[in-house]
């Protein structure tokens, strides 16, 4: 992992961001040992307490083990990481990772219908009216990025209606990861956000307390964009193989 001197030496957050970036970008392989606190502090140009605090935060995320004697061993983030890493995995060096982007849409495809089903069972009566207003805004919006933002607001209301803290925290993370992709995914997501009638179908199922109908309507809404992105990724991979 390459280290560069930190400019804001009084703020351990800078140390944390640089170390975490190196781990997420694969600069150090699982099982390898990081530099000692002393050598790391020298390379970064900061104090050892600043390094120690940053390493403690990274250890709390499960990405490293700080062992007796001070050795810091890198863990496999696929085995030990949490959803909080998703936004960092999605955008690396300013570029969106297509495979991570696809995995986010896959997660939506499976989680979204279940959330809609729960909302049809649990949401207060006012939820359907709030959803209707959001779909009204979606139907008249003409900017593709604005449409995606309104769609996120729609799902925010559905998640509230589902009344599940686990789905709420998952949605928060997925939204944070998805928002940087809005411009890049505008064309693909048109297959979803331009279909206001499909959003209406979810609203009506929630209003009528029809969990199965809400599930089916949500799947019908979310599946096209997931399929399109999957096909685009497959085509990109095939093109790369042909170039080789």
TrEMBL record:
Entry keyword Transcription: yes
Entries under CDD domains matching the protein: WHTH_GntR
Signal sequence region: none
Residue span, HTH gntR-type domain: 9-77
Key words, A-Z: DNA-binding, Transcription, Transcription regulation
InterPro entries per record: GntR_C, TF_FadR/GntR_C, Tscrpt_reg_HTH_GntR, WH-like_DNA-bd_sf, WH_DNA-bd_sf
Matches recorded under SUPFAM superfamilies: GntR ligand-binding domain-like, Winged helix' DNA-binding domain
Transcription recorded as keyword: yes
Classification via PROSITE patterns: HTH_GNTR
Any Pfam family matching the protein: FCD
Protein's name in the database: GntR family transcriptional regulator
